[in-house]
Amino acid sequence: MTFADLLLQQTINGLSLGAMYALLALGFTLVYGILELINFSHFNVFMVGSFVGLWVLQQFGLSGQEIVLAGLPLVGVLLAAFVVTMGVSGGIGVAIERLCLRPLRNVKGPAAMITTIGVSYILFNIVLLTVGADSKNYPNPVPAIHYHIGGAVLDLRVILIWIVATILMLGLYFFVQRSRLGKAMRATAQDAEAARMMGVEVDKVIIMAFFLGSALAGAGGMIFGLYYNFTSFLIGFTAGLRAFTAAVLGGIGNVPGAMVGGILIGLIEAMSAQFLATAWTDVIIFSILVLVLVFKPSGLFGRIAPTKS
Amino acid sequence: MPNVASLLATVPEARRQQIAIGTLIVLAAIFPILIDRNDADVDSMANAAAYATLALGLNIVVGFAGLLDLGYAAFFAIGAYTYGILTAYQLQPPWNDFWAVFQTLGLATPVPADIGDGMVVHFTLSFWIGLPLAACIAAGCGVLFGAPTLRLRGDYLAIVTLGFGEIVPIVVRNWSDLTNGAAGLNGVAAPRLFGWSFGVNSVPYYYVAMLMVAALIFISIRLRDSRIGRAWMAIREDEIAAGAMGVDRTRFKLLAFAIGAAFGGMTGVFYVAKLQTATPEMFGFPVSVMILVMVVFGGIGSVWGVVLGAFILQLLQSWWLQDLTEWLHILGRAVGSTTLQKIDLIESIELIFGVILVLMMLFRRQGLIPAVRPQAALTFDQQHAEVRRGGFSGLNLQGLGGDKRTGEIALDIKGVTVRFGGLTALNKVDLQVPTGSVVAVIGPNGSGKSTLFNAITGLLDNTEGSIRFHGDEMRGLPPHTILKKGIARTFQNLRLFPNLTVMDNALIGQHARLTTGVFKAIARPPSTRREEKAARDWAMEVFAIFGNRLVPRVGQMVLGLSYANRRRIEIARALASRPRILLLDEPTAGMNPAESLELAEQIKSLNDLGLTVLLIEHKLDVVTRLADTVYVLDHGDIIASGKPDEVRQNEAVLTAYLGRNAQAAVAGVA
Amino acid sequence: MLNRRRAAQLIASASAVAAIGGTRAASAADKIIKIGADLSLTGADAQGASRVKNAITMAVNAANDGHAVPGYTFELMILDDGTATAGQYDPAQAATNARKMVSDPLVVAAIGPQMSGAGKAMTPILSQGGLSTITPSSTNPDITNPKFAAQYRPAGKPIYFRTVTTDAFQGPNMANFFAEVLKVKKVYVLDDSGAFGVGVADAFEAQAKKKGMEVLGRDRLDPKAADYTAILTKIKSLNAEAFYYGGVSQAGVKLAKQAYDIVPTMIKGGPDGMTSADLLSGAGFPAVEGWYTTIAAPHLVDDTKAAEFVKTFKGLFGTAPDDYSITAYDAALVVIDAVKRVAATGKPVTREAVTDAMLTAKVPTIQGVVSFDANGDLADRTVSVFHIQKDPSKPLDDVSAQYKYLQVAPQS
User: Fold this and answer.
1) DSSP state of B368
2) What's the complex ipTM?
């Protein structure tokens, strides 16, 4: 492997990771942008999402690595799996908002954030107590096709993951930019009170933010399973923490910022493993976070969050 | 029972507290005997006590100062490894004469090396030195971690502290020369007292832990009820107002981090001395979260609450749930129910915690023992307001104002410009306030009046020009220094400390005039008691300006008071700082005409006492009544100035205020 | 004839036995003997702990059913050292549990803990209480190292026994195997951040250097992270001939999968943590094909015992046992054997007597005959090397079928 090949390969590795972080980061950023709330339950919505995806794939008779699909069946199965996973995860997000967070909407201080920690514990342990603690083998219906670019290898699976992640992120971006509800979301993020006075149904906007964010987390969970071919009750924490860092890095509340932040964190992780050591990955990621916040507190792309006086 | 209740009711509150605390102390002291020296349960209690001290430390950071810290276990780890490394078989530099000094101090001893036949150093730090040493080192790290986060707001602060909380165990794990990494330290020394080692006997550890809890409760309460605690709570309630009222935010935030970290560091020493080992896993994110949960569960900011929260949550998992599960199984066997026998509460403990946490937040956010307790309503007599309209010659307001109208310029503003992006909020503003006078600034909404106040009081960092107060340049100084120089202000939108009492608000106003530091706050020597009493007396004198509108309410939370009263409190808070000039930003906003008039009279009287006043006001009758000079701001420019009557006739002013057509109409009437 | 007193005893002991989960009849008037067990049943290590718990329960039930020790009925006292506070094993809780065991006079021996960190906190207390424990999985050599005797056995006697070898043997012997048999010249070393993994990898690295291998680098995986592609890409780019992973299957499953994608032909090695059904079911074929792994015991040619154990275990609990289920089962066998030998002499079954009996143990177990040296470590330090080769005719998660025994690793 030449040095250029190596860089290319690590970039491919980093981009795959980054796509996943970006999907997760979007959920943090949507909710934070509107409610100014660090949603710790998001970590485990992602984890639950990967199990929902596993369940759907199993319903199609897929288990283990042996069964490989191609063409239309592959597209159909993946589409169905993503739709169901995102629907269920989104539903969980909405339920969390309605049951646990809405009563705390106007409460100052860390109450809402602490509630999300509690919800996170609950989701985590429900999965642990029902499906058990061992890693689950995740089906991989995508044919194992490798493309060689110089010394670097690119899997078909990776390309598919990039495509799905890109479609989802662009979809969200255009939704937020163009649609009526998307505009209402942005308005609420700027100033909830003013938006309410202008006739925006803030409750609806918040529900939508939770639904979209959690659905994307679910999709991220499924992508995680497809990419790494396993899932377990533990996957939420590390991925969630890095994704949140990504959201802050990009400027929390800022949708394109979360995407770029996610990709950046993915690349940083890959490059630090190459040039430093994986043992220090978290130290590096958090040091970068601290430096960014100290010198550019609004993140790389500027934060968009409610102005509470 | 009613007899006991009525008997208790006759005992005064302070006495009741003493009795309760005394009972607690006795119970804690005889606990090991009560449970028949059950070693495991005593040990559980000692661990729970360690978590109580951690909760007390975090409570200072989160509860008092309002700084959300999600990585508190880092300090626990730092304290633990400080003591651990300095007593374990880990750090063993070759022995030479340099270490002889340490040997005489009892801190090191030569032991044969594993490899070769030389001697190496074995550190033998005493537990009792380890406690303060680790406290200092952890406090230093608290300042180090806190410093970059000072500019960050609550949520960002949370994520950065979380980052530090992750980093510290990773460093511990990877720096294995120093910490023995994942394998854990070997041979951390148990504490010794007069040559007798605690060993693995749980009883002495229990008493040490309980003494630590008691000491930290005492320190927490002393700090809370002092100038230090008030400054923290002011930051928690409203950072900007805290700065404007003279609290050095940087210093007090770092102080909170440092003291919180010191508690954590001390607990770390105790914890590893008891365990005689330490591994990086003991200090992970779940630990930080659990300590936070203890604080929230017990009651954020409530000293007794967080202690109770820590004991309950810790004993639940290490003691009660195990016993409960066992009893359920016994019951299941007795009634022949296999379901009961299979229940394992311990496996579900995290689920149980999650549910407790959510339910607490939804239904009892203030925690088990709320920090703020409801107060009795005022009686009718107390509510019956006796209005005082200035002319308070009988009041003892010495030290307030006293400036003669010498014509000397008190506040001299020259060429002040403030730009926000493309918008010029103030454009080369010149303004003079002569000593002893009342100057009013008027102007339409958005004309830059409040920006001018913010520029004077140091809340903006993009001010150009010069702001001199009695000859000293104020521009570039932090808000708390400006207040100390004698410039106090109120805010247009009221920035009181809503969850503090009226008295506390006024005491925070005096922050810059008081001197009590951490040690005096804890020890409370006579000088501090005198200072505190004088501060309270002075606050009462200031409250008396407003007749009995505030005096009967000094013990109440600001939150529940009427709007007009809150306006008065804000003025009182500013006056409490003994300013030479008072900046009032629309003091009568939201008051009815009678109340406005009452306040105007009071301001007039204050001015008569020699207090210089700079006033933003919309109500022209108030301005006319009070002001010697009026400046008119429009779009950041001073468009007119002079005596109130002159300004009223000024065409530019009329245009700015009323628009051209209206001006024509006025002209037509004239 | 059944008189009232005897009937009461019968009910009492029957209910006590039922606690272990069986419905069998117990001999009346049996004396109760408790075996303590300290396991990490909550948090991150819950899965392994429940298998250990199952294995011990299985051994104890079998002993009671078969009246292994006439006149005595065993009862388990299972304590959890995992806490929600730590999110995993908590040394402080382990210490509390040690006190609980010590303060119950019926407890004569214990099994556990799983983690060396817990062991370090427990041993001073157990030593003072004279209570011996057998760990099925904690491998840190310090605890049984005579150098630290003052710390970990202040009362003098060894009380920390193991049915696994310490890190001091598996890693170095595998390094010898890499150098002498596989002729590896350039190797990369990884661990999984855990005490076991770091210890094994450290020992491997040191011996590899001694053997003249070039250690290209050393890194540490975060077992909670999912992505090891970057570090594997780095290993690939360094043109390593092999990598050795010190650790257990939690990170190992992910590593095996991703290694198959990135460095499919590289020589891959791991310790007994990788000799596990978890690896076979979690990573599966073809990813696991070709891994070299070890166990810290001689391989038994006539391995019907192990197969039988696996079958019974699966039948009882529905999951395959892992490596530590076997060591835990063996630990229980050793305890039962020690009690049996003490009881046979007619002396009272005390902690001290049980400890002495364990020191002279020669117990046939699943992993072979277990006996201990003077410090409580396994006397037999044989390390056996296996090679994963797919046998499609057998269940694909059957360790005994899919791991092919190669040889005894060269001793260092």
Assistant:
1) S
2) 0.89
Reported confidence tier of residue B162, pLDDT bands at 50, 70, 90 = confident
Q: What does CATH list as the number for B409-669?
A: 3.40.50.300
Which of A31 and B305 is assigned the larger pLDDT? B305
| CA–CA distance, B375 with C157 (Å, rounded to integer) | 64
Distance of CA C314 to the CA centre of its chain: 18
Q: Residue B512 contacts by C-beta under 8 Å, 6 or more apart in sequence?
A: B245, B246, B247, B480, B483, B484, B577
Query: What is residue A98's DSSP assignment?
Result: I
pLDDT (mean) for C377-402: 86
Percent of chain A scoring above 90 in pLDDT: 37
Q: Looking at beta carbons, which residues of chain B come within 8 Å of C125? A: 200
Which of B309, B360, B590, B371 is closest to B499 using CA atoms? Answer: B371
pLDDT at C300 over 70: no
Smallest Cβ–Cβ distance between C124 and the set B174, B200, B313 belongs to: B200
State how far residue A26 is from chain C, nearest Cα, in angstroms: 20
How do the domains of chain B map onto residue ranges? 1-34, 35-87+125-363, 409-669
Q: Give the H/E segment covering residue B612.
A: strand B612-616
Looking at residue C235, its pLDDT comes to: 94
> For residue B389, what pLDDT band results from cuts at 50, 70 and 90?
low
Backbone angles phi, psi at B391, to 5 degrees: 60, 35
pLDDT over threshold 60, residue B391? no
**Which residues of A sit within 8 Å Cβ distance of B?**
32, 36, 38, 100, 103-104, 107, 109-115, 117-122, 124-126, 128-129, 237, 241, 244-245, 248, 279-280, 282-283, 286-287, 289-290, 293-294, 297, 309
- Helix (H) or strand (E) holding B330, with range, is helix B321-335
Take residue B120 and report the two structure tokens written for it: 């190496």
What are the distances in angstroms from CA B572 to CA A152, B375, B577, B597?
A: 72, 22, 9, 17
CB-nearest to A121 from B163, B347, B350 is: B350
Residues of A in contact with C226 (CB under 8 A): 224, 228, 235, 238-239
Q: Determine the distance from the C-alpha atom of residue B150 to the mean position of all C-alpha atoms in its chain, rounded to a whole number.
A: 14
Domain that holds residue C225: 167-295+383-408
The number of domains in chain C is 2
pTM for this entry:
0.90
Closest by Cα among A175, A200, A179 to A189: A200
Task: Considering only residues B588 and B422, tell me which one the structure prediction assigns the higher pLDDT.
Answer: B588
pLDDT of residue B126 exceeding 90, the answer is: yes
Give a yes or no: residue C378 inside a domain: no
Chain A residue with CA closest to C84: the answer is A121
Predicted pLDDT at B255: 96
A286–B164: do the CB atoms touch at under 8 Å? Answer: yes
* Residues C86 and C195 placed together within one structural domain of the fold: no
Are B358 and A122 inside 8 Å of each other by CB?
Answer: yes
Surface-to-core class of residue C11, CB atoms within 10 Å of its CB (0-12 exposed, 13-18 middle, 19+ buried): exposed
Contacts of C120 in chain B (CB under 8 A): 184-186, 275-277, 279
Each residue's pLDDT tens digit, B563-577: 889 999 999 999 999
Point out the residue among A109, A283, A297 whose CB comes nearest to the CB of B167. A283
DSSP 3-state assignment of C183? coil
Structural domain contains residue A41: yes
Tell me which of A279-283, B110-114, B258-262, B523-527 is least confident: B110-114
Inspect the interface and report whether the beta carbons of C227 and A228 lie closer than 8 Å: yes
**Class of the CATH domain delimited by B35-87+125-363:** mainly alpha
* Residue A54 C-alpha, separation from nearest chain C C-alpha, in angstroms: 14
Rounded CA-CA distance B586/B577 in Å is 20
Tell whether the model's pLDDT for residue B530 goes beyond 50: yes
- Return the residue in C17, C54, C79, C96 with the most chain B beta carbons within 10 A, the one to mutate for interface testing: C96
